[in-house]
């Protein structure tokens, strides 16, 4: 696995401390050669600047918003667009999402799926998949 694709609402939009932990995890993943992206079913437009900031600040490599790419999770086209944006195939990517329907759709499309419920549980799975070490 070489790509980490994460949902925004319900995953990355938590409390400030949790966002800091995600940012540290993204930095460790990128240092380990992992490409990173946010894939959100957000319609886009000016209200999505909060999400785009993650890419503008270099925290993730790409931000994809369904309203701008013309496909929503769990459609296979949404996952394909995210993988393409980080120059990988879906079979080389992991999706982290708080919706079981999106995780299932990702798995059916060829990605590895991680159901997000709490950071401490998800970080264990992500670190194991990508062979990342550290405290997050």
Automatic annotation (TrEMBL):
UniProt source species: Corynebacterium marinum DSM 44953
InterPro entries in the cross-refs: HAD-like_sf (IPR036412), HAD-SF_hydro_IA (IPR006439), HAD_sf (IPR023214)
Top-level taxon of the source organism: Bacteria
SUPFAM superfamilies: HAD-like
Protein name stated in the entry: HAD family hydrolase
Pfam families linked to this entry: Hydrolase
